[in-house]
Amino acid sequence: MPLNRLLDSGQPINPPPDVQRTSLGIDVLSRFVCNTWDEATAGGARQFDAVVIGAGMFGGYCADKIFRVGEASGLKVLVLEAGPFLVGTHIQNLPNAGINVPGPITPSNDPGIARELVWGIPWRSNVDFIGQAYCIGGKSLYWGGWCPRLLASDLSVWPTAVGQYLNQNYGLLEQQTGVDVKTDFIQGPLFTLLKQRIATFIQNGSVAHIDSVEDPPLAVQGQSPASGLFSFDKYSSATVLIEAVRDAAGQPDSQRRLFVVPNAHVTRLNTANGAVSGIEVFVNGARQSLGVGPNCAVILAAGTVESTRLALHSFPTSLNNPSQELMGRNLMAHIRSNIFVRINRAAIDPSNTLPNAVQVGALLVRGSTPQGKFHIQVTASADPSGNSDNLLFAMIPDIDLLDAILANQTAGSISLGFRGVSQLFGDMTTSVPNAGGRWINLSPFESDEFGVPRAFVNLTATGPENSLANDMDAAILAIANQLAGNNPANIQITSQNRDGLGTTYHEAGTLWMGTTPPQIP
Length: 521
Prior knowledge:
4-stranded parallel beta sheet, 23% helix, single chain, 20 strands
């Protein structure tokens, strides 16, 4: 469909070209990836086998999988994303273009316009949040890349079929994301030394509460998977979704099996006989609707908070008594600590086995106490500024800059970053709202610009959960001190803080899985 050209005056030209030309560029990628509402849905008349709401980490991946698996049967997939197209890959695969993540704010202070181009907070809460990335790819364009497997003890409380599926497919998922590839620039001599030393601490019991040390489960493929292929770099669902869309684009719209519509904010799912029968959506501010057949799967992939809000608004399980509503209970997140230290190189490597240019290293440490589990993401480099992450995921196209960075790798100290992530526990039984728990419900006081009640997110931590986080922090400092030879002269703590509960992006649990939907497991 021809689109208006954007001019400084704001006036369109005739005839309008198919690809928009702005004052500064040509909008090629978004035009070649996305479609308008009318193109994708034939004005709301086209039928689909699956509609995915949200094109972020999970929505983009899910749409690609349905499209690929459904090729033989001709399954048609529609993706509705509330935000625009931003970029086609993880921002760390790009030169520093000034695409950033904003800081946390009180949700009620959200300005109502996007921060850092695409970030917004549509909900309200008792804690600060960074919010949601409204764009194709969502937070997968920004995420840290750590994706450790769930342990057998974790999966034991999940539905059996789900646990079996994950165990059978973890290898494939890790291949798709790049986790299974041992990346030389992360798993070099510094990684080997640190892993050996921390394994020794576990064996001799010199650090309490740590159970294992593992290769870093990072979704970063820094080397080619096969001859003739480039490496995949840092994973984002945007990349696989774009590839699927372009494969689908060879067919005329009437036969095409995958469409992505941006700036399409779904406000309600209409239901009939226990199934979704229609979708209400605002596309670029205009209200639209789409009929959904009884065999169409509708996948909520708009993030935990917004998916829960949409479910509560569309098909509450306890319409006459909101306090008995099951959806919105069981909210979980993580407590996350950040501790950065600088340790004399001679203390970490007393035998002087490291090469002069130590580059970077990363690994994962798991731990537990009677209160629960935690894991520690460890990064290390000889960065003189003390930020071990600076060189870990960076595209450096300037050879002069690369030479300057490598010259600093011979520094006399090594910087280590420890990001600890400790467990919070869900509560499926306590009614909502309640003052001391974690939950999501619909605000009775405020609606958004589309007339839909905003979600309210209540996040707290209990005494035992805080105790677990404190034990995790103590284990981090114990590891650092052991690496420094337990000599205060060899170590400097450059920063130590604990993130707010609303800033980890790890919300989950409110639409929990089970084999008996009407019952609390």
